């Protein structure tokens, strides 16, 4: 990846820091070329590549709300082939895409396009690292980007993503779209067959998820079978869309959907349950990736892939311990201010957690109050955004509770980007399955992480009609989650917790949670920690609810390395800001810094740093020139 970075650096230097006379000459030359040769934009050049990508992962077109003319013919009616041969094809095809991207002449692109191309290439190269390390697992498995070591788990895979995007994201406004929806239901058993084939192949290689992951996955699948077919969310959500759009012959279409759920979806779900029950007999209780074939090498590749880091697991583990010590010292001061003086920070946060004053009732009224509070926190922060950002989101964020049918399988909260076709807003989803795990003092920070100034603001600023869609799909997990964690800290700077030490404790606990992730993720995958050891450490250190700690730890088991991106990304952004303030002194403008950081989307951390360094050099030169002129 160093070659990609160096090429991008040279291109950006050529466009952003060149001599004015040379620039004028180059512009004249380029103008002459343009008169004879029409240069395609990067988006135009990547259009056929984008369609080839969607052919590999058709569901991602639905996730991002991409129109069929851009995604490719009949993509909305197709499902991913998870079979061993399908997986091999995806790996080879992605390598071919990277080779084609490397052949694009970056000198013909704008500075913004060069950054976008460099980011796409870097993220694809990163995604290929785990696949080049092991033959098992699945590429492009989560949101179309991440590598997953287990093709089937409680959080990821066809059985999780299918109902998710079909119910929430599949637009049904025309008879053609309704037909595509039914086609996907028809194809579900065949797609599930490819999943089971891949599961069986990986088991033959000795790759078996831990027993507790299999148990939880089976429970998720059984939850899908509790409805009568005509009451299943796959049918009821379809009916609501048809009604809203007034699609002709809606009743017949709904009846067809119910029949397909009964005759296709349910049997396929039972088939996967049976397959997992057979695999369960061979499973162990070992949590870490290190016990899988080539697991230690795979974990290092996952760190590069999802955390954009060259750090070793031992270095990350120690960094986590250091951050835990720093943050708990800050929390100790606040806890004493509010009257919690005895015991460790974790023990005192446990007492705070059990205070009924901070727990929303597990009732319809309690859940409604929680949603009302989210909207209040969002309105409060929105009034201050113009003081901290020059670029602002041009679209409000939607706030939705995860449907009951999927709430138990959802980890906390998450953000979905808006659809490309404009039919769906960016959405903050929150699971209300366990209200005890959502104390009121944690909600304000969670809101800012997922909405503004976190994921929603970052996503909307990074979107561009002129840049290729792959810029959005191949995003950096570390930059994206690092920004959202930085946004939590930024909210405190913006005065959101002023005179509210309890909610500020929630903010610090949230940051502590991300430091704990560095410890437990490396602990399980590189230091032979058990699931129970990791859960106990999280509960004792953070003072969080046992159910929250359990869900989090089991998430890290199946998404190794992903949770490292939050802290490592945040620390990089803080480092870049500190560097800029030191270099620019009283000329430093936080709004300009934030705009430059976000304007190209969630770039891989190394490219982000080099882009910001170039901006900083340009800003320093401009300041010197202005002072000289005066």
Q: What this model shows, in words?
A:
This protein is globular. The N terminus is likely disordered. With 630 residues, it is mainly alpha-helical. Helix 8 runs parallel beside helix 11 and helix 15 crosses helix 23. 66% of the residues lie in helices and 3% in strands.
- Beta strand count: 5
Mean pLDDT: 92
Our Rg estimate from Cα atoms comes to 25 Å
How far apart the termini lie comes to 44 Å
Helix content: 55-70%
Helix segment tally: 27
* Biggest sheet overview: 3 strands, mixed
> Structurally, how many domains make up the residues?
2
Unreliable segments (pLDDT under 50, ≥5 consecutive)?
1-23, 32-36
Q: What percent of residues are in strands?
A: under 5%
C-alpha geometry: globular
User: Structural class from helices and strands?
Assistant: mainly alpha
Biggest β-sheet: strands ordered side by side in the sheet: 3-5-4
Features:
630 residues, mainly alpha, disordered N terminus, 2 domains, single chain, 5 strands, 27 helices
